[in-house]
Amino acid sequence: MADNVRELRPRTPDTEKITINLGYVDLGHVDLMVQEGFYSNRTDFIRTAIRNQLERHADVVRQSTARKSLDLGLRNYTREDLEAARRAGEMLQINVLGLATIAQDVTAELARATIASVSVLGALHATPAVKAALADRMR
């Protein structure tokens, strides 16, 4: 039965893995909070701490997002989007806070012809060839 199941679109991960360095005492405090049942694991503690800080500074983040004209959340650029920009003679300025995705079928040549700049606070998913083609346009 599994032979007739096809994935129509590859699923984009919901998260990006990061690595942090933490002092032993701070790590011990985190482990104690987990052991005492306040958090289910270290990741739960760290995510909660980050969300609390983001909420604490939400007004500043909102103002900066507006000032820098950032698209907030998930932004996908398809081959059709870039071809339409090329037909219109436009160059795209990609400014995203979150996840920017350039479709897998976008060629390096099409990306260079249609994307003037890329600024992503979060993560950029694109083929290695497209990332290399845009390297000098990334801020």
TrEMBL record:
Pfam families for this protein: RHH_8
Classification via InterPro entries: Arc_rbn_hlx_hlx, RHH_8, Ribbon_hlx_hlx
UniProt-listed Gene3D superfamilies: Met repressor-like
Protein name in the entry: CopG family transcriptional regulator
Species in which this protein is naturally found: Bradyrhizobium iriomotense
